[in-house]
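Changelog entry

Holo records now carry the ligand SMILES as an explicit input line rather than a separate metadata file. Below, a converted record for flavin-adenine dinucleotide, shown in the new format.
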Amino acid sequence: MWQENVPLSGFTSLRVGGRAEFLAMPRSVAELAAILDQGQGLPLTFLGAGSNLLISDRGIPGLVICTKNLRGVSFDEATGTVTVAAGEPLPKLAWRAAQRGWSGLEWAVGIPGTVGGMAVMNAGGAGGL
Ligand SMILES: Cc1cc2nc3c(=O)[nH]c(=O)nc-3n(C[C@H](O)[C@H](O)[C@H](O)COP(=O)(O)OP(=O)(O)OC[C@H]3O[C@@H](n4cnc5c(N)ncnc54)[C@H](O)[C@@H]3O)c2cc1C
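Structure line, unchanged by the conversion:
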């Protein structure tokens, strides 16, 4: 379910940083739930695409969960809402919305992060959302 002592430098844009004590990369919400259940009591850190992270050379203790494999987008034309999994890349989401004629995500097309990272970082908060 997870790997031990994994170098994290390849998980960030800056390509630096130490190791995760444990690393999990769930592919579904059910898998994520099982990982969280099994990892109870461990310190928990989430990673998205790693575009806005500087990881210490000392690494990260406990369980690191990288959500970039959590994928899925669903557009509801009736309500004008989009439901997106945390690992979806922002530029891809912006393009898919635009291809449907939906506006509002234009600002996200050049951001190299995921939806999970966007929510936590309040991306677009300077006027885009
Ligand atoms: C070239 C560039 C241009 C940018 N332009 C803009 C811009 O125009 N407007 C703007 O608002 N922002 C901009 N940003 C910042 C951007 O919003 C963030 O880099 C991006 O949202 C981070 O997403 P990520 O998936 O890479 O997250 P990461 O870098 O992996 O993580 C960032 C933070 O989010 C947390 N996190 C990530 N995923 C999850 C998750 N699934 N669950 C819980 N926590 C999570 C991490 O723990 C960390 O604290 C830019 C960044 C870059 C590098």
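Spot-checked after migration. The chain has two domains: 3-66, 73-121. The helical segments are 29-38, 90-99, 115-121.
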